[in-house]
Write a structure and sequence with these properties.
alpha/beta, 6-stranded parallel beta sheet, 7-stranded parallel beta sheet, 464 residues, Rossmann fold, 2 domains
């Protein structure tokens, strides 16, 4: 049955119909994908014999959401997958077929490396979903999409719930993609020279000069549709709880040694590193009870089992983790305790996109109760709405990633019905677990780079 628009979607639809290059900066779960599909259907094709040719570029984890929405609207999407040669052949075969009907192509955001020939096609519309992937001027993907040949396309879309995760300077490249100018500047470097300066506290990086923020926001407001859930009258109820733990004395000694000396001795295991990144990963995994892939203390995992067998015994639950060894350990442990659980993770030895899609569907169909998920696999465009409860065994360190994962169990229907969302963080006290938690919920919004510096400072203070 055809979905009905909510009032905020009708407003977004009306805006997009009258905007050559729409930008829907609508918070997650407000239905911007459906609005986009229905507006694009109204476009006239450049070549009537071919029909409308539309391209969506999205992160891998958001593609399934597009496929579902397009199917519900009666369209079969062409997903460009496989090797570079296979994708190119698939594009040539499907794009130039004279159907006279709409054909919707979907590709992941690594398109610059896998199929750069996309830019030579005469698209009627190009949609960048989670468009902040082109917010950094120095990145290859940003340079790829800021090429002027994309602006031959009649309709260029930006879709994201958080267009400025690291400050309002993130708007610049996104608007340059659509219009080729921003506040009189033709590229980011002109803008930087005119409107930005080094951070006065650190002397590093670039931030907007005093008074420029209002100019940037006003300029974005002229062409973009910006909407938060509160503005739409859909502020959900979130109940936050924590479960706190202390390391056993032996583990605390090893943890403190790694923080202070970049070295660790625990039984027969000896580890030494000179890299902050490697130390960070070891510290975080120690907080989960792991040293490498070995479970060396069980307080946190035992508490998780108690929750799932006790207070949450009848609940569908999403357990979020950052590291693959954690995910595998948790899933195996839960299964041994007769808890029906499955997992999903990417990277080396991880699940394919096809298998990830299958597992997400099974969870939504209530075929298993606990889904242990890597944040990077499911922070965008994924529907876990069968669950009202999430547990962060390890939380992503970035505020944006945290916000995105929290939105996976939310729907407009649940918000309007005022169904509360329970979010539990499992935190080791006086550790990087606690640092991440406090920074994610910092009162003042900080960029991920600033947040990492603050956490590094706290680690240094603890080691003194």
């Amino acid at each position: 049955m055809r979905k009905k628009f909510y009032n905020h979607q009708r407003k977004a639809f009306k805006y997009a119909l009258n905007e050559k290059h729409p930008a829907l900066f609508m918070e997650m779960r407000l239905g911007k994908t459906l609005v986009t599909i229905r507006v694009v259907k109204t476009y006239k094709p450049l070549d009537t014999s071919l029909g409308l040719r539309v391209l969506t570029v999205a992160p891998n984890c958001a593609i399934d959401g597009w496929l579902v929405s397009l199917e519900e609207e009666g369209f079969e999407a062409v997903r460009l997958v496989g090797s570079k040669a296979k994708r190119t052949a698939q594009l040539e075969e499907e794009f130039y077929e004279e159907t006279g009907k709409l054909k919707w192509f979907i590709v992941n955001k690594e398109v610059r490396q896998t199929i750069p020939e996309l830019g030579a096609c005469r698209w009627d519309s190009l949609i960048l979903d989670e468009s902040t992937f082109i917010s950094r001027a120095s990145s290859g993907i940003t340079k790829f999409f800021l090429n002027s040949y994309w602006r031959r396309i009649p309709h260029l879309w930006l879709l994201t719930g958080t267009p400025n995760p690291e400050g309002d300077g993130a708007f610049v490249c996104q608007i340059l993609f659509q219009y080729g100018w921003f506040l009189g500047c033709k590229n980011f470097y002109q803008f930087r020279c005119k409107f930005m300066e080094p951070d006065p506290f650190t002397g590093c990086g670039q931030q907007l000069k005093w008074g420029v923020r209002k100019q940037v926001v006003d300029e974005v407001a002229k062409t973009a549709f910006v909407l938060g859930r509160k503005d739409a009258g859909l502020a959900e109820t979130k109940i936050y709880e924590t479960r706190k733990f202390n390391f056993p004395q032996k583990i605390r000694k090893a943890y403190t040694q790694m923080e202070k000396d970049f070295a660790l001795e625990l039984g027969d295991v000896k580890i030494r590193t000179m890299w902050n990144g490697a130390r960070w990963q070891i510290l975080r995994q120690l907080c989960g009870g792991l040293l490498g892939e070995e479970l060396i203390w069980k307080d946190k995992i035992k508490s998780l089992v108690q929750l799932l067998k006790g207070e949450l015994a009848r609940e569908s639950v999403v357990v979020w983790c950052v590291y693959n060894p954690e995910i595998k350990m948790i899933t195996e442990y839960l299964k041994k305790k007769k808890i029906k659980a499955e997992c999903m993770f990417g990277g080396s030895g991880g699940h394919s996109q096809k298998e990830q899609t299958r597992r997400k569907k099974l969870f939504q169909q209530n075929k298993f109760r606990v889904f242990v998920v890597q944040q990077a696999c499911a922070n965008m465009g994924v529907d876990f709405s069968i669950s009202d409860t999430m547990i962060y065994y390890s939380s992503p360190p970035g505020a944006l990633q945290r916000e995105q994962t929290e939105a996976r169990t939310t729907t407009v229907e649940k918000i309007t019905a005022k169904i509360p969302q329970l979010i539990i963080d499992m935190i080791v006290e006086d550790s990087v677990d606690e640092d991440v938690y406090s920074e994610v919920f910092a009162k003042f919004k900080r960029s991920d780079a600033t947040r990492q510096k603050i956490i590094a400072k706290r680690i240094k203070e603890r080691s003194l």
